[in-house]
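Incident log, support desk, overnight shift.

02:14 A customer reports that sequence design results differ from what the structure should imply. Their input is reproduced verbatim below. On-call engineer (initials T.W.) acknowledged and began investigating.
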């Protein structure tokens, strides 16, 4: 395994040392203006992106609207200039000498959708690590797998799938932080579950087909709406305006009965104002793990009105998932003989849930410098998971024992359903200021309330006694209110130096059924207030390279179980993170390279230790000091005219300063503690690397070798070699062939061979350790991922 790690390190070192071999001498410089009249300060356009198409060369106009591209080779070039709210422009040049290029951009005839996410997205001045994923990038892999799988090759990401195929329940970790620590927004609207703070992409199947772009901000990132961002923020934007009518269908099928079909259509801009977009999708998979099937359905419908200064959109999208539970994992002793083992055998051991989302999104230009964006949303979710419970106690359900004759029956087989019915609604807003000079700023925030109903039903019992079908054995309603307000400002001190400041206040109120100090189950409440400041600077060394540094503070409240399974005396504290980031970027004709250093200093990070609290629950506890420190390297290099290589790697240390483990001692009924120092944080590999080697031998044909390496991970915080996930490396081959016949805009054929070397690996797991007969025993369970498999698809767009 050391050889594999050394291999990826060597590749990245090679890229770090790479420089352009040909030193060109030519320069393109100029200004970008809003009109071609006599320029004034208000008519110059700072922040416009200037790129040389087909290369990694690019820059942005400064506060005076000026730009300069140096070290260009003689010959034909295509210069593209773009800025949010303006129509992009492309100019063809044949470089034989230095060129001064005046660029004139026209405002778009209608407002653009991107403005509603600009307040919460990072940009070239943000001094943080981020990655933008376009619709084109998503389409290359979008054949039924979930959004986490489609982001697998972006920096610092590890993905997993309960069923082993990337369909159904999937998970994502960024810099070792799980989904409960990753903030997710849809069009700037919070999506994380309010109580668990996790994100369940299974509830919106094939949503990627309605996405126009995704931005991943690693670390604390910029202030955003919703759950606290401890590992990253994922900002998703849905359909942007399609001015022309279109229709599209995607069909795919592959191993393990995986298949997807969808239909998309849009009216284009009707009467210069109205637009309607729609999608209908169905995905099925048998799963790699036994009985781990997925039956997924969804639709997306969006109607909008656009004018030159305003737009309003109403989005309705819904997902219904029915999946067979594969949450139990495979015991370690079965991995070599029965990797697809599923402990659940009851025919209806399923998860059945539907989520309906409604979004009303509006934007209005108040003046040339000011824009107001407001959105309202409502999410309705309802569903259950069903379980067969053999030989379960009546007392677990608040039921009396059953007496038959002289026999007292204390246990019986039971089938239960655990329901969740929730309503989630609120608003988000931002007021954006652009001086078209040195200052841009945003004031924004949001308010939302979550009303969650939790209840359980008994739908069958072998010995029913005095029970009725659908008797409720618990009923627990919770209400959570979240409010945040932020202010951001970017100021250009000089053509080379930019600074930003970002301040957020967030308040959380939570009412729930919990335990009091007398261990009685009563309604309780908790209120928290967080202050999350951030600041950074960006310095432009020249038109090819930039350095930046930032520091940000984040807070995150405990989740539902932390509150409900504790008393006010044993309740854990909120977590705090101070995130330090610094980076260097360089780009040239054949190379784009970024190095980002980070140090994430945690206070009171929550983790399982096995310790029982005063309620008798092994809840998470606060770890006083822990940290993540690493370097993220990301590069794109043009090895030849038709050969490109996109590669990234993260090398990190993720440590708990002092950790105490508590194990149940079955010999005497006590708990025994063990002390550890400088152990690894669970599920935090020291090495993560991704590679995409792309070859285009002919027009319309792309061949790709996609590789992913993840270092070993520990299942808990003890760094015990007997409780770990082994390192793994996967290799996929992707073939895409697209044609543009007269009767269609495009027909694209995709063939994806996953894990072609048949690596047997596990991407997730859990452990339970205890003491019996004087020995420490750890029972591990794992989630195996599929070996060699394939997906084939066709996309037809009219």
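02:41 Re-run completed on a clean worker. Output:
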């Amino acid at each position: 395994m050391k050889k594999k790690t050394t291999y990826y390190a060597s590749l990245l070192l090679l890229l770090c040392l790479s420089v352009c071999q040909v030193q060109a001498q030519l320069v393109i410089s100029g200004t970008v203006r809003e009109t071609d009249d006599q320029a004034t300060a208000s008519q110059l356009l700072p922040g416009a992106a200037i790129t040389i198409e087909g290369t990694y060369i690019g820059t942005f106009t400064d506060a005076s609207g000026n730009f300069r591209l140096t070290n260009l080779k003689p010959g034909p070039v295509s210069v593209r200039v773009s800025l949010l709210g303006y129509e992009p422009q492309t100019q063809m040049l044949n470089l034989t000498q230095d060129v001064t290029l005046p660029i004139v951009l026209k405002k778009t005839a209608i407002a653009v959708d991107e403005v509603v996410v600009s307040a919460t997205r990072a940009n070239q001045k943000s001094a943080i690590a981020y990655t933008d994923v376009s619709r084109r990038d998503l389409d290359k892999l979008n054949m039924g797998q979930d959004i986490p799988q489609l982001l697998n090759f972006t920096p610092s990401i590890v993905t997993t799938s309960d069923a082993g195929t990337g369909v159904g329940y999937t998970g994502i970790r960024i810099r070792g932080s799980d989904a409960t620590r990753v903030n997710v927004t849809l069009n700037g609207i919070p999506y994380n579950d309010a109580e668990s703070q996790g994100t369940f992409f299974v509830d919106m199947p094939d949503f990627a087909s309605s996405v126009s772009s995704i931005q991943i901000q690693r670390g604390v990132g910029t202030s955003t709406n919703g759950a606290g961002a401890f590992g990253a923020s994922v900002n998703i934007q849905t359909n942007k305006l399609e001015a022309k009518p279109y229709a599209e269908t995607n069909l795919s099928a592959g191993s393990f009965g995986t298949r997807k079909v969808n239909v998309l259509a849009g009216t284009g801009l009707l009467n210069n104002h109205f637009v309607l977009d729609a999608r209908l999708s169905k995905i099925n998979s048998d799963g790699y793990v036994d009985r781990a099937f997925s039956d997924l359905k969804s639709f997306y419908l969006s109607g909008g009105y656009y004018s030159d200064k305003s737009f309003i959109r109403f989005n309705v999208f819904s997902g219904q998932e029915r999946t067979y539970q594969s949450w139990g994992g495979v015991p370690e002793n079965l991995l070599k003989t029965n990797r697809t083992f599923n402990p659940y055998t009851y025919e209806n051991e399923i998860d059945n849930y539907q989520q309906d989302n409604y979004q009303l999104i509006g934007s209005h230009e108040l003046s040339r410098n000011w824009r107001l964006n407001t959105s309202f949303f409502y999410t309705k979710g309802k569903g259950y998971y069903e379980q067969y419970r053999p030989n379960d106690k009546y007392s677990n359900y608040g039921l009396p024992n059953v007496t038959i004759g002289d026999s007292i029956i204390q246990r019986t087989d039971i089938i239960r359903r655990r329901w969740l019915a929730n309503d989630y609604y609120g608003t988000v807003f931002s007021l954006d200021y652009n001086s078209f000079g040195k200052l841009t700023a945003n004031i924004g925030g949001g308010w939302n309330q979550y009303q969650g109903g939790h209840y359980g039903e008994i739908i069958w019992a072998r010995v029913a006694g005095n029970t009725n079908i659908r008797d409720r054995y618990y009923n627990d309603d919770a209400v959570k209110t979240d409010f945040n307000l932020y202010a951001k400002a970017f100021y250009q001190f000089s053509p080379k130096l930019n600074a930003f400041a970002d301040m957020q206040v967030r308040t959380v109120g939570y009412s729930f059924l919990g335990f009091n100090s007398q261990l009685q189950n009563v309604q309780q409440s908790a209120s928290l207030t967080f202050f999350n400041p951030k600041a950074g600077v960006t310095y432009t060394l020249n038109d090819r390279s930039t350095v930046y540094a930032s520091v940000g503070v984040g807070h995150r409240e405990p989740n539902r179980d932390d509150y409900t399974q504790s008393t006010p005396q044993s309740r854990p504290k909120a977590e705090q993170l101070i995130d330090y980031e610094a980076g260097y970027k360089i780009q040239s004709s054949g190379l784009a390279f970024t190095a980002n250093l980070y140090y994430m200093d945690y206070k009171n990070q929550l983790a399982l230790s096995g310790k029982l609290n005063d309620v008798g629950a092994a809840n998470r506890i606060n770890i006083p000091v822990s940290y993540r420190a690493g370097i993220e390297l990301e590069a794109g290099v043009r090895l030849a005219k038709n050969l490109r290589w996109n590669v990234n790697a993260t090398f990190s240390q993720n440590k708990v300063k002092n950790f105490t483990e508590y194990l149940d001692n079955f010999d005497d009924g006590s708990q025994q503690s063990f002390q550890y120092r400088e152990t690894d944080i669970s599920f935090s590999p020291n090495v993560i690397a991704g590679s995409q080697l792309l070859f285009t031998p002919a027009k319309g044909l792309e061949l790709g070798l996609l590789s992913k390496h993840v270092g070993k991970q520990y299942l808990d915080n003890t760094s015990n070699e007997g409780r770990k996930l082994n390192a793994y490396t996967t290799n996929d081959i992707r073939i895409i062939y697209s044609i543009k016949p007269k009767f269609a805009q495009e027909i694209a054929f995709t063939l994806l061979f996953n894990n072609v070397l048949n690596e047997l690996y596990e991407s997730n797991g859990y452990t339970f350790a205890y003491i019996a007969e004087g020995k420490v025993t750890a029972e591990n369970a794992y989630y195996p991922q599929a070996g060699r498999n394939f997906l084939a698809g066709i996309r037809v767009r009219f």
